């Protein structure tokens, strides 16, 4: 089996338009959540979110590209540009033929659906733009990345709600580790912050009207975010031979299904995913210094996740740090694991643990070291990134410092 | 603007050309308009003139709408507008 390393990272989210900007914000415990700004927002009960601001597609893409790129694709290409540039790879010949792209998204082109439903239902129009389908399809972003960088190997999109990115990155990891692909571009993207996208979430009544406060006793729900996180996963020897800078090693992944409830999380499913990732990596739980929690800020997730961590790690659960960066960038749904992987890389590489901000009151059911409100310096050798989706589909990645 | 000028403006925008560079005997291929650009042009023309163009992207040559050059497109649109009124 091959070793797999990360040689490029890119992002755009409410904390920043690049990895350095995002990590600075996480270090400073800055909050990217604020008043939403889009058409008909006044008709929503939930009016906050982690919206990407100051992003102008017009300056970045030409008219023809904009007519084909939904916002989730625009985010993906923006983050991919940063990641591939950092990796310093160009794809030709055999490398191009065998390298691919696997991305996660839950909703794909949600605002394209929204805009065009509005046009035919509300405005009564009988004709839509010819590119509606290629723009909204869930694989649009992966396909445009493949075209942009000449990636001709295994390429597809994974959709498992809030675990989409982690499932995608887990698969990319397996493709590189098995030798099927020397390089995989992976991660995920989401852009649901439009009237229909937020209205749908409102229906579930799990959204907070004021803030995302994971693990805090007074938490009152999740807050949506948007954006993308993209990584270059590369076979270790391939990266080493060309002298690439290595950000971290991906050492394990596991996927489990609760097979129990369409929305309620299961402690066993989450625990099996974390334990599975450790077993896959051949690492003892005691080696884990940091967990980037799924940490949505809902009553159900946070206490289930903390109980699962206690089950998997035993007494070591009280030694490790676990934080939820959703408190800062919001829940990017299908793109969330990708942006959160950046916090794991920062912990391993820079020795800085991103905090859980908005933490106000301890909850006895979440009695772990959640790195409240302020980032912390600590040496971490192994980090986990959790994602537990609606539908009971869980995916956990294990990363190691290199 | 006449039908001719409006159609040329739409095609020129699609081809990223100045309208003065689009002549009536230009073919879409010469102007660099590919299959996606063609369906987008048809959409823009339908929107502009509020007409429905009998164009099937599966078999453009079998459609009742002649797209062999700019003049044919203008003539087809004139016919559709006349049929509507």
Features:
heterodimer; A: 402 residues; alpha/beta; Peroxisomal Thiolase, Chain A, domain 1; 2 domains; two-stranded antiparallel sheet; 15 helices; 37% helix; 19% strand; B: 85 residues; mainly alpha; Non-ribosomal Peptide Synthetase Peptidyl Carrier Protein, Chain A; 3 helices; transferase (chain A)
Short description:
With 402 residues, chain A is α/β, with parallel strands linked by helices. Chain A has helices at 19-28, 57-60, 63-68, 71-87, 93-98, 110-122, 132-136, 140-149, 164-177, 195-202, 236-241, 267-281, 299-313, 326-329, 336-350, and strands spanning 4-13, 34-35, 48-49, 100-104, 155-158, 183-190, 227-235, 248-257, 288-292, 321-323, 352-353, 376-377, 382-389, 393-400.
- The strand order across the widest sheet of chain A is 5-4-6-7-1-8-14-13-9-10
Provide the number of structural domains of chain B.
1
Shape estimate of chain A: globular
CATH topology of chain B: Non-ribosomal Peptide Synthetase Peptidyl Carrier Protein, Chain A
Number of domains of chain A: 2
From the spread of the alpha carbons, the general shape of chain B counts as globular
Distance between the termini of chain A: 18 Å
Uncertain runs of chain B:
none
**Any low-confidence stretches of chain A, pLDDT <50, length ≥5?**
none
Main beta-sheet strand count, sense and barrel state of chain B: none
Rg over C-alpha atoms of chain B, rounded to the nearest angstrom: 12 Å
Using a beta-carbon cutoff below 8 angstroms, give the protein chain pair with the largest interface and the number of residues from each chain.
Answer: A-B, 8 and 9 residues
Helical fraction of chain A equals 25-40%
- CATH evolutionary superfamily of chain B: ACP-like
At CATH's second level, what is the architecture of chain B?
A: Orthogonal Bundle
Number of strands of chain A: 14
**Number of distinct beta strands of chain B:** 0
Backbone CA Rg of chain A: 20 Å
How many helix segments of chain A?
A: 15
What is the rounded distance between the termini of chain B?
Answer: 19 Å
Average pLDDT of chain B works out at 92
Domain Carrier (chain B): 1-81
Organism (chain B): Pseudodonghicola xiamenensis
Keywords (chain B): Fatty acid biosynthesis, Fatty acid metabolism, Lipid biosynthesis, Lipid metabolism, Phosphopantetheine, Phosphoprotein
Pathway (chain B): Glycolipid biosynthesis; KDO(2)-lipid A biosynthesis
